[in-house]
């Protein structure tokens, strides 16, 4: 029986979220992706907007002064807003893991947890543009490519800043799946087969 | 029906060769690993010892003078022995691919060919030491770890020197499999499931 959390890291537009949802459904596990934002806001008492703003990216810039006025004095020179957000999300992720196996997408969960099974999903740029354009109409392929590169860069920087590990380096994950060749379905079949000694 | 070559890159001791053999057997495909050495020697007319010596590693150092005396004059300042070996092996790999699908282990076949399905296999150091110690008795775990690191470094340098790509970066492969968690059997099941749209 599966006794571990499955984490999914993913390039934007590669279908990682879809793969996670399919695995959660098939294995009858809770699924967490954007859900972590409101759960973390609730846990911390901070506004959900702050979690949305800093979701999977870091701000190297100093916080605006106005915002700092509302930061508790003891934290003023200690923990930046993005650090607070990361720490809260990590606490929520660890609590979820204590409750039992589940599927968690993104948010460095593969490094926050010590004993998870970690998947990385990626795809060719042309396939990711096509995929995202089919989900969001009215955006040119050029603008979509720009957006994909921006979001990937944010995810990569965020991962590397908070974990010290290299995003997309195979050895950081148990199974890395390219979704252009076989579609999300092929990745789903491969992941299920890989996990079969646990399920 | 599978119409592509399957290439396998692998960390030393991770079971990549075993996975390749199992896939070749199951899919009824020719399998090439060390076989490429004698095939390339035959293709080039160079001694098999030279291919063994330079197998999957580059020599940055100048060739010894004695060896250079036997190098054809026109090649003396043009193509080093390791370059000759790489070029011959690449020619052999392309010829094999022209004959139809097969499984090829190592030798940058994933970059030599343009349309292959590329797997990367890796494992935790402790598992690789255990695996290699079970195959070769009389070597201490400490010495085995040293050997594993040496061979990995050679493979990595060789791959990066001849392809310009990063060895072990997930996006360079279609499927990357960690064999400590599930054994070679789990990787085999995952690879078969991934390939099922082709077989």
TrEMBL record, chains A, B:
Q: Which Pfam families match?
A: Cytidylate_kin2
The identity of this protein, by name, is: Cytidylate kinase
Q: Which domain of life is it from?
A: Bacteria
* InterPro entries (alphabetical): P-loop_NTPase
